[in-house]
Specification:
Blueprint lengths: L1 H18 L13 E4 L4 H14 L7 E2 L4 H8 L10 E4 L5 H9 L5 E16 L6 E2 L1 H8 L13 H4 L10 E3 L5 H15 L3 H9 L1 H9 L7 E3 L4 H10 L4 E5 H5 L5 E3 L1 E2 L6 H5 L6 E9 L9 H11 L5 H4 L7 H13 L10
Parallel strand pairs: 1-2, 1-3, 5-10, 6-7, 6-8
Antiparallel strand pairs: 3-11, 4-8, 4-9, 4-11
Helix pairs in contact: 2-13, 5-7, 7-9, 8-9, 13-15
Amino acid sequence: MTKILSLSVILLGAAALSACGGGASGGAREQIRAVGSSTVYPFSTAVAEAFTKANAGFKSPIIESTGTGAGMKLFCAGVGVKFPDMENASRRIKKSEYEECAKNGVKDIVEVQVGLDGIAFAEATGGPGFTLTPVDIYKALAEKPFGKPNTSKTWKDVNPALPALPIAVYGPPKTSGTRDALAELILEKGCNTDPAMKALKESDKDQHKAVCTGVRTDGAYVEQGENDNLIVQKLAANPNVIGIFGFSFLEENMDKLKGISISGVVPTYAAISDFSYPGARPLYVYIKAAHLKSIRGLKEFAAEYAAAWGPDGYLKKKGMVISPDDVRAKNAEIVKAMTLLDPSTLK
């Protein structure tokens, strides 16, 4: 009964899309449009290339690197050819984002976990050899570490065992899923080592978020937009600077960069795969179910993703960390049936 209801909802959404001039058959848009994460961008681009070669009747998809947060806003803005069909995300959709989607008529979404990645900290191969912990990173980057103004100028101010070099970090902007991962996987963990901060989370979640995830704006942390390759170039030119980006960008540039260990664990394929590296995270694509019937090739594009994410698939060669067997099997079924996301599981 649930499957029949879901299919009915999708068909109704497709009818509404066609009625507003959204059908590809009407010539309004004949290619898939995806927005979102700069981390997922190279993977979706590779899938788009393979999809186009395998399906001569379809035009090449448009893949845009907007950042996960900015992409969610575009994706959730409405149904119809003016709005993207897919969202690439380096973190899971938030409950608040889903609610914004629903408010704008985007009520039926298919969530697919396509692989794993890590939020990597790196330096130039000739760098000082940083060894950090979440507490070190939190104290260095937080606007108000443990509720007090950040007066640290050098890494040695943060931890006497670290070098007396100025704190200089190039990282993702607020619109990026990598920035969200930095906040959730690293900064918050460092913040919560203080019992008072853990207690604050129970008493005032908003204040806890501000204190634990707010990043300083005095120049120690420099936002580099959604161009992770730009961070790579700047690190290679300045051995005393630290960069933050997706693991795939580190893996592609091991001739210029080296990973920085966090809590004694270096970002490697194996450490991300088994989640022993603190910055490991899943990667997703989200599909607008209302567009399935009206935008040609959308389901086939998702099927191409599923065919590419295995141990022998081309996405691994692109730097994607492969999900465990059970996760891949579950998500292959989601792609096959276009199973709708259950919003009750979101935070």
